[in-house]
From TrEMBL:
InterPro entries attached to this UniProt entry: K_chnl_dom (IPR013099), VG_K_chnl (IPR028325)
GO annotation terms (biological process): monoatomic ion transmembrane transport
Compartment annotation: Membrane
Lipid metabolism as UniProt keyword: no
Membrane topology: Multi-pass membrane protein
One Pfam family linked to the record: Ion_trans_2
Coiled-coil ranges per UniProt: 110-144
Protein name: PH-gated potassium channel KcsA
Gene (name only): kcsA
Keywords: Coiled coil, Ion channel, Ion transport, Membrane, Transmembrane, Transmembrane helix, Transport
Domain Potassium channel per the UniProt entry, residue ranges: 22-101
Length: 147
């Protein structure tokens, strides 16, 4: 049981670390994108909040297309953020799958314990039935000895 909780704490640390890393990536990508694109002649990212919105939709692979980089450096930043988004989806998927498999392992252990308890109960019932038969037999023998 202790190792199970240790594993869950480990998983929660992974989720916290992923959240922190993604927050830093979104914030820094937004800042770089805003600095690179804000004065571009054809740019549509003129403020930091718009750059944050662009980074959020890019890293989540939503990509509405309402905002996009127009400079070469902006596109490099976008490419980095796209790769980070795909990696994020992979890590989150792997973490969720790991949780499901851990829960399935617990369910298997519980089922095995229940089966063992059923076998023990059946064995106990059999032993009690044999004791009852022996008791009846002893009673018969004692009655014959008195008669």
């Amino acid at each position: 049981m202790a190792s199970r909780w240790g594993f869950r704490r480990f998983q929660l640390r992974i989720v916290a670390a992923i959240t922190a890393v993604i927050t830093v990536i979104v914030a820094s990508s937004s800042l770089v994108m805003w600095l690179v694109e804000r004065d571009g002649p054809h740019s549509n990212i003129h403020s930091y909040p718009v750059a944050v919105w662009w980074a959020m939709e890019t890293i989540t692979t939503v990509g509405y297309g309402d905002h996009h980089p127009t400079t070469t450096l902006g596109r490099v930043v976008a490419g980095f953020l796209m790769v980070a988004g795909v990696a994020l989806v992979g890590v989150i998927t792997a973490t969720v799958v790991t949780w499901f498999f851990a829960e399935l392992d617990v369910l298997r252990e519980v089922r095995e314990i229940e089966r063992e308890e059923e076998r023990t109960e059946a064995t106990l019932e059999e032993v009690l039935a044999q004791l009852e038969r022996l008791h009846e037999r002893l009673d018969r023998i004692e009655r014959r000895g008195r008669d």
